[in-house]
Amino acid sequence: MNTENLQTSYETSRNKKLIGLFAVGITLFAVVAIVGLLISMLGNFLIGGLPHFSWEFLIEAPRNNNTEGGIFPAIYGTALLVILMAIMGVPIGTATAIYLTEYARQDSFFARSVRFGVNTLAGVPSIVFGLFGLGFFVQFVGKGADAALGNTGIVWGQPALIWAAATLAVLTLPVVIVSVEEALRAVPRELREASLALGATKWQTIWKVVLPNAITGIMTGLILAVSRGAGEVAPILFVGAVYSLPELPDQLSDQFMHLGYHLFVLSTQSPDVNATMPLQYATTIVLLLLTFALNFIAIFIRSRLRGRALK
Amino acid sequence: MTESREEVLKNPAPINIQKRKRYLGETIAETTIKVTASFSILLIFLIFIFVFKEAASLFSTSTDETPATENVSTPTETPATAPEDDLKPEVYNPETDLLLEENQHRASGVAATDDLKPEVYNPETDLLLEESQATATTTGEAPESYGADITESPTGETSGETKTEENPDEAESYNPEVEDMPLPTVGNDPQVEEPEEVAPKTIWHNLLGTIWQPVSEIPKFGLLPLLVGTAKATLISILIGAPLGILAAIYVALFANRRVREIVKPAIELLASFPSVVIGFFCMMTLATIVQNLFGADYRLNALVGGLGLAIAIVPIIFTLTEDALSSVPGTLREASLALGATEWETAFKVILPAATPGVFAAVLLGIGRAFGETMIALMATGNAALATWTILDPIRTFAATIGAEMGEVVWGSEHYSILFFLGVLLFIFTFAMNAITEIYVKQRLIKRFQGS
Amino acid sequence: MAKDLQTKIRATDFSFFYGKKQALHNISADLYSNKVTAFIGPSGCGKSTFLRSLNRMNDVIDGTRVEGKVEVDNIDIYAPNIDVVELRKRIGMVFQKSIPFPKSIYENITFGLRLNTKPTKPQLDEIVEKSLQRAAIWNEVKDRLNDSAMGLSGGQQQRLCIARAIAVNPDILLMDEPCSALDPISTAKIEELIQELKSSYTIVLVTHNMQQAARVSDYTGFFYMGNMVEFDKTRTMFTRPAKKETEDYITGRFG
Lengths: 311, 453, 255
Known about the structure:
The complex is a heterotrimer. Chain A starts with a helix and ends with a helix. The radius of gyration of chain A is 26 Å and the shape is globular. Chain A has a two-stranded antiparallel ribbon. Chain A has 11 helices and 2 strands. Chain A is mostly helical. In chain B, a hairpin with a 6-residue loop joins strand 1 (about 210-215) and strand 2. A two-stranded antiparallel ribbon of chain B has the order 1-2. In chain B, helix 2 crosses helix 21, helix 14 (about 275-295) crosses helix 15 and helix 15 (about 305-325) packs antiparallel against helix 18. Chain B starts with a helix and ends with a helix. Chain C is α/β, with parallel strands linked by helices. In chain C, the strands form 2 sheets. Chain C has a 6-stranded mixed beta sheet, sandwiched between helices. In chain C, helix 6 runs parallel beside helix 7. Chains in contact: A-B, A-C, B-C.
């Protein structure tokens, strides 16, 4: 027996070791690069914006051509927008998810079409939703409403809060549907059968047993949708957001200010970019805080949901 | 139900289980749910229909447009079709109304009379007349690109004026429109050029042209610069983003210990949640400066910066999907490879990664789709100049940015309006195709792989 | 002493199909009132499928089809004019995995009662107490009726599920491997409970544990590959089985 060969065959060749190190090194580098990017972005925003960020910033209106003051109107507008969006989108998304999990025969043409629709919706670029909002909601529904109501001026047939909310509701529909579906599927089959075995009808089972169990998942979907809706700017560029308003919106047909949109206009079209820079950065911080908080809540709820399902 | 069991047993009632017609509530619930579920399909159709509808008017009226545009090219026509409030009753666009007024302010020499000329009913011709005169008499200011700031006309106006004067560095960098104007490949002075050109004969000639200049006497809607711009940005973003994302996913899924994984995955999810306007902001503020210092670019906002921004946006997508694909490769495969004497990295690159190829491919495709259609980053970081060069340090204009920039100011129903919708159609089709390919390819490959060919 | 044997459930040439695959072949059997009938057989032989066919629980699965008849109290339950929801009120079911609703113990019991009627609180209280007593769990939970049912042990949860099923006053109790997830002590408690309950209900039990069938049931049916190979009094089946397959299974030659 040639023991020499045995000896060397138990050690990885030096070449292999080097390549191995390189492989691990380069992938680790990628990780470090990405995380480093994240940190530097956050750092950049904090450095730029913290000086101006304060409680007053959150509750005051902008002053002096957006060089001082706060962005309360933008916060207000964003909040109104996402609330309306949620009211419009969450029921439809939940109903669709209920249909897909509880009622549809899995291989029926209708079910597959619905799924196809949802998947396609998820991939459409957000600006196209803006076009849809303009072409459908503003021009078609809005004008139609004006005609039906006999309005002399243009009330509904123009960019407005309600159309922006509707557009965002359509955009976030897939998010809601997927989250609710996940929650519904997490409910064990036996629970439904136990309810049916007691003489409950299908809808009674859904309403009294399945939905209460899935409520956390529904909330996750809601929060994720809200978080996306608050951050998307492209769809509302020409469907309702404006840069400054004399007063806060109080009608569904009003226009509104929006955090993301405000940041966009501030940074690209301010007369004196240097002067408004603190506001820009501070707005960024607010926007990020909002997004992070919402996502964090959603993740928290979701992990609790998973923990329960595993029991 | 409240009788005692014993009593029931003594007098067993016959089972009455005939069908009763009392399930009205049940059917209502079921119908409501089915109807709402069909909304999702309906929405896709609606989006399709309405976006296509606005774009379709392009192709039906293309022959009508031509004579009108030819009208514009003769200079003598210009004073005759004097500037006025040309907007017909239907063609309402609140923003453009105000826009015209502003233009009239600026174009001081142009008197604003107000008789509508019933015959020359061509909305965008008149509008363009306005604008071309405006551009002739001012220092080449294009109308405000981001329409909605009209509501604060004082600031809007001042922003129009002050842009050209101060701090050339900052103003030009943060003001995309100013960069819009000095197009190296197109003559800066429209007046010199226009009268010598002949308007494109059909809409297709126009669309396939090489200049995108919708705001001029003869509107040019050449899609080529936009296509080149979008392609450049997408390519750069994929060339940078895909390797980063995939390699990072390999590390996290295959090499990292649990603690690292628990920190990195949430961090990247955090990055994924950044609104794209924030990423665009970062690019135009900080990244652009870095790039300019490193590469000495002429233009601060260019394709490279835009591509980097898009990369930031798509790295989380590619990372997450790749990591999912790698993690779903069965652990037994890994163990079998290791048992044969392969090292960790050999297993990773020669066994697991190939096994996860469909998922990785899907991840990259979806990343491409996202980058292609991304709007805010393109609007803020690319310089917004419709150039058709392949230099990466030149500014570009993408499809999505074009829609976002110009939609707010078009006249409803005009050719420009329809073309913007057409761009939307293109975007829709592209991402749809990407999704479809991903689904078909991934499904097929996965089926083949796990069931044997 | 001749006992009055009443047929509660009669299956006649009953076949069941999952799509194209036939899971049950021409099953015929009489299940008698106030007796415990057990179905035994190796995994996948169809005993659970048959049990679930008795309260039409298989209807919730897509693409299933039946042939033949199942009569409960001489009514064909697969006839087109039958209200499945009403049927299920007359037939209770207990599942292999005890699955209380994530609500309080009290609410679990009253769930079925409150579906279509509005009993008063005193009525509900009375039924809750009776059901829990019958299920031999009253003493253990009477002080914590409003606590979550998820806090009970496995055996307690299963008895709770039995109580829940009893609360709507069914005539028949179907039990699908009720003890397979339980420890021996809880199993013994439930087997004892089954013996008590049979005086008031007809019980049909599926079990993969032969000895349990021998202990607990009056009649046994042996299933194999979708066929009911033999059906007889338990004592007879276990001492002098008529078919060879039965004997092989019982003596452990396969399983």
